[in-house]
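User: Some background: our group keeps a shared notebook of sequences we're curious about, and every so often someone picks one and asks for a predicted structure to add to the entry. Today it's my turn. The entry only has the sequence so far, pasted here. Could you supply the structure so I can complete it?
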Amino acid sequence: MSAPSAAEAVRDTHTRRRAWTGVSVLAVVGTLNYADRFLPAVLAEPIREELALSDTAIGVINGFGFLAVYALIGIPIARISDRGAYGLVISGCLALWGVMTMLGGAVQ
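Assistant: Of course. Here's the predicted structure to add to the notebook entry:
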């Protein structure tokens, strides 16, 4: 066995750094997503009063509605990602999430 060349060592360091950067970005995004997911539950009472919704409607929004969106959208996104377009899927989902968060912030 021969010792790895300097170019291989640099390439390995670069690959590891890039992998850990990706993991770090996804960890931050996952944390923000987790926090963002609970905003409707925290704001349920003001939303219910403002829109004159019943407790059942709030329950559907916070429970079944959330579940249905994840279940229905998750399957096509997983198929696209499995075909090798995972970078496109991640960036597209992050862009859509960002736009929806901005629109949610603009609601008065």
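Suggested note for the entry: The chain has a mean pLDDT of 84. Helices lie at 6-37, 39-42, 44-51, 55-82, 86-106.
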